[in-house]
Automatic annotation (TrEMBL), chain A:
Residues 10-23 have a biased composition (Basic and acidic residues). Keywords: Membrane, Transmembrane, Transmembrane helix. It holds the Pfam family DUF202. InterPro entries: DUF202. It is a multi-pass membrane protein. It comes from Streptomyces rapamycinicus (strain ATCC 29253 / DSM 41530 / NRRL 5491 / AYB-994) (Streptomyces hygroscopicus (strain ATCC 29253)). The lineage of its organism: Bacteria, Bacillati, Actinomycetota, Actinomycetes, Kitasatosporales. It comes from the Bacteria. The chain crosses the membrane at residues 54-72, 92-111. Residues 16-80 form the DUF202 domain. This is Membrane protein. One of its GO terms (cellular component) is endomembrane system. It is found in: Endomembrane system. Residues 1-23 are annotated as: Disordered.
Amino acid sequence: MPEGNGTDGSRTRDRDPGLQPERTRLAWRRTTLACAVAASLAGRQTLHSGIDPVSLVVLALVVLAWLAFLALAHLRIRAMHAPRPPALSPRAAAAVVACTVALAVLGAATLR
Amino acid sequence: MRLWFAPERLREEGSTPDYRFSLANERTFLAWLRTAMALVGGGFAVDQFLPETGRPLRLALALMLLAAGALCALRAISHWVRCERAMRRGEDLPTSRFPIVLGLAVGVVALLMVIVAAFGWGG
């Protein structure tokens, strides 16, 4: 059997039986989905009072926050391919929180 | 709190815990972040989908939900850092009253909305 021979075999053998990396990857996917919903509502909010330069700038910032979240989640999901993924870096955690807070603040700024 | 400003210090403390515990902590962090996103989205939903509600009440509800969402996200990372540090030092995980407070706050907001819907406090 090829198991334990070569990189692919040892990867399967070392695989966590509790599938923690997979579960964490799915948790990131769910969170990305939640972020997409919150971002689209925030985007809708910015255009709620009509299209003017200010609302367009705020909309661009909302899209930027969403893209930043997607990029961070993508990097983390890729890290989950390792059999023993490294711990989340505090910087990445702070960045995803900043994206969430930015969505709340940007949307709140355009409440009427 | 100082860990927020020097996050790399976290790695210098204690010993690296089993990666599975770190991943479990990360999933808890993500679950709190989703809660925060849901509250933020709910804040916008109140403003956008309850147009017949009076403006002050609608704004107050939306701002309460948005503030709760932002607070929830900030608390998520502070709890994640504290758990990570406790695991590195081999201490007990930190306890928190935040879930109870958040539960009560969401309950109050929901009750307010039920009252608004039932009595039709329109604008």
